[in-house]
Amino acid sequence: MIKVIIISDIKIYCEGLGQILSQIDSIEITGLENNIEDAIKKIELSEPDVVLLDMNMVDSCSVAHAIVGVCSHTKVLALAVPEDESNIIECAEAGIAGYIAREASLDELIDTVIGTKKGEFYCPPKIAAFIFKTVQNIAQSAKKNYLPKVISNESQQFEGLTKRERQIVSLLVDGMSNKQIARSLCIEVSTVKNHVHNVLVKLGVKSRTQAVSLLQRGVPASFPGVGNLI
């Protein structure tokens, strides 16, 4: 049995939904709440499986935050959420477990309640598009803000290399083994190994492959003439 509490400050709306859902064998309506404080107390005491939260109420997203805070396993469904981007994202940040659009049918509402109890996430296509677009924008923004810092930090790392270590790194980029580097620079293989170890430590990487990857990003241009040092 799925225990459900409905929260809406429109009493007739709240009671109407309660009567409809109570006719479903797998759903038990344990509360019809019009007052937020009373609703929070009841949720904390009864620990329902699902809360249907009317998103047309004032500060409904704050209410969703509060519900998740007092009963972490309770799934909050955003009921009749306005389909504009700010409301949708605010709901997501509040921990909403699913969205029910204003134009949803009763069958869709019932399916959403039952599916949410099973751990499924219901989201109308238009709302899903908003969320996906926002995630893309965040990812692109993060990439723009992050890459210059990475390059700057890597530049500082490369500037800490000695002339010989830069020679070693340049030959690593060419795909040379330790023996080949030793022959090219006329030094012992053990000396090459020591230089490679120091390079990895200074660059903050764990392997030759990672060191080469830094160079291939174009970071060497930040310090003079790596290729000319050989």
Overview of the molecule:
This protein is α/β, with parallel strands linked by helices and 230 residues long. It has two domains: 129 residues, Rossmann fold (3-Layer(aba) Sandwich), CATH 3.40.50; 84 residues, 3-Layer(aba) Sandwich (Rossmann fold), CATH 3.40.50.2300. 58% of the residues lie in helices and 11% in strands. The chain is built from ten helices and five strands; from the N terminus they run βαβαβαβαβαααααα. The protein has a five-stranded parallel beta sheet, sandwiched between helices. β1, α1 and β2 form a beta-alpha-beta unit. The longest helix is centred in the middle third of the chain and has 35 residues. The termini are far apart. The C terminus is likely disordered.
Integer count of domains: 2
Please write the string of helix (H) and strand (E) elements.
EHEHEHEHEHHHHHH
Strand share of the residues? 5-15%
Q: At CATH's second level, what is the architecture of the largest domain?
A: 3-Layer(aba) Sandwich
- Count of DSSP helices? 10
Taking Cα atoms only, what radius of gyration do you get, to the nearest Å?
30 Å
CATH class descriptor name of the largest domain: Alpha Beta
> How confident overall, as mean pLDDT?
81
- Please name the fourth-level CATH homologous superfamily of the largest domain: Response regulator
Helix content: 55-70%
Helices and strands: which structural class?
A: alpha/beta
- Cα(first) to Cα(last) distance is 75 Å
Low-pLDDT windows of residues: 147-152, 219-230
Query: Could you give the count of β-strands?
Result: 5
**What's the overall geometry?**
rod-shaped
**Biggest β-sheet strands, sense, barrel:** 5 strands, parallel
Taking strands numbered 1, 2, ... along the chain, how are they ordered across the largest sheet?
2-1-3-4-5
Reported by name, the CATH topology of the largest domain is: Rossmann fold
